[in-house]
Design a protein that fits this description.
The chain is mainly α. It contains six helices and four strands, in the order ααββαβαβαα.
């Protein structure tokens, strides 16, 4: 009878440990996904601002984006938190506006999460607005949008 009690105690402890670990992982993944979402949305905003201020040109590095005026976005302050944003988001600075202009919102791949769980920020952010602006600046007449 004693061994049954010991087995029950061990099983209960294992279930508690495994359950606790699962809860920890779920919370960690959710927090990571939230950080990626806000970092992605901030990055899209910064790219939109850069394209507007530089007549449709795409930035060549994070340093170009750091020159933009400071801004607060959810949990991030730009440029103070630039290193933190770069932990979550990768930008293809080699992407040309000609190729970006042909992409749909769902095809847009110049900004992507680096790794881990994430919420889809292309739908949440202003990717459509950014793409529209890039198309306007890169249309054949090369006239600046209003």
């Amino acid at each position: 009878m004693r061994w049954v009690l010991r087995v029950v105690v061990v099983v209960v402890c294992l279930v508690a440990l495994i359950g606790g670990y699962c809860v920890y992982r779920a919370i960690s993944d959710a927090l990571h996904a939230e950080n990626v979402l806000h970092a992605g949305r901030l990055t899209i905003k910064l790219l939109d601002d850069y394209v507007t201020e530089h007549d449709g040109k795409w930035p060549s590095s994070w340093t170009d984006l750091k020159k933009l005026p400071p801004t607060d976005w959810a949990m991030f302050e730009w440029p103070k938190d630039s290193a933190e944003v770069q932990r979550y988001i990768a930008v293809n600075f080699a992407a040309g506006t000609d190729s970006i202009a042909t992409q749909s919102v769902q095809e847009f791949d110049a900004v992507r999460p680096i790794k881990g769980s994430y919420y889809e920020f292309r739908d949440e952010g202003n990717v459509g607005s950014l793409l529209k602006k890039i198309r306007e600046y890169n249309r054949p007449s090369k006239t600046k949008p209003k």
